[in-house]
C-alpha cells in the first residue's frame, strides 16, 4: 500500500510528458547551432577528402586510357609482325610440300627444280627460323636421295629396254613393213629414240 502511494505521489509531482518536451529558449538555439556547425565541419572534411582524391582518380582514368591506347598499338604491331613472319614461312612450307609430292610421284626433274628454288630463293628469306635452318642442312641429303632414286629407276628402265630390245625391234620392223613407208617410219623411230636420250641426258646433267 505504501509503495503504491509513493508511485502515485511521484506521478503527480513530475509528469512523464515533461521528459518528452524539447528544450526551449536559448538552450534549443545553442544546440541547433552546435549541430549545424558539426554538420558543416563534416561536410568540409568530406569535400576536402573528395577533392584530395579526385585528382588522383582523374589521373588514374587518364593513365588507364593511355595504357589502353598503347595496348591497342602493341596489338596491331604484333599482328603486323605475325603476318610478316607468316609471309616468309608459308612459301617455304608450300615449296617443301610440293617437293615431297614430286618426289613421291617420281617426278625427279621438277623435284630438282623445286629443290633449287627452295635452296636459293625461299630459305634465305627465312634463314633466322630454326626449322628453315634444319631444312637448309637437309638440302644435300634430299638432292642425294633424288639422285639415287633417279639412278635406280634409270638403271631399271635401261635393263628393261635391254631385255625387250629384240621384241621391240621385231615389232618396229613389222610396223614398217605393214605401212610400207620405211624411210618415214625409221625417221620417226630415230626421232623418238633421240628424244628419249635427250631427256635422259638432261636428267643426268641435273643430277
Automatic annotation (TrEMBL):
Official protein name in the record:
Exocyst complex component EXOC6/Sec15 N-terminal domain-containing protein
Pfam families recorded: EXOC6_Sec15_N
Query: Where in this chain does the record put each Exocyst complex component EXOC6/Sec15 N-terminal domain?
Result: 34-76, 78-173
- One Gene Ontology term from the biological process aspect of the record: intracellular protein transport
Judging by the UniProt lineage, the source's domain of life is Eukaryota
Q: Which organism is it from?
A: Scleropages formosus (Asian bonytongue)
One Gene Ontology cellular component term attached to this UniProt record is: exocyst
**InterPro entries assigned to the protein according to its UniProt record, in alphabetical order:** EXOC6/Sec15, EXOC6_Sec15_N
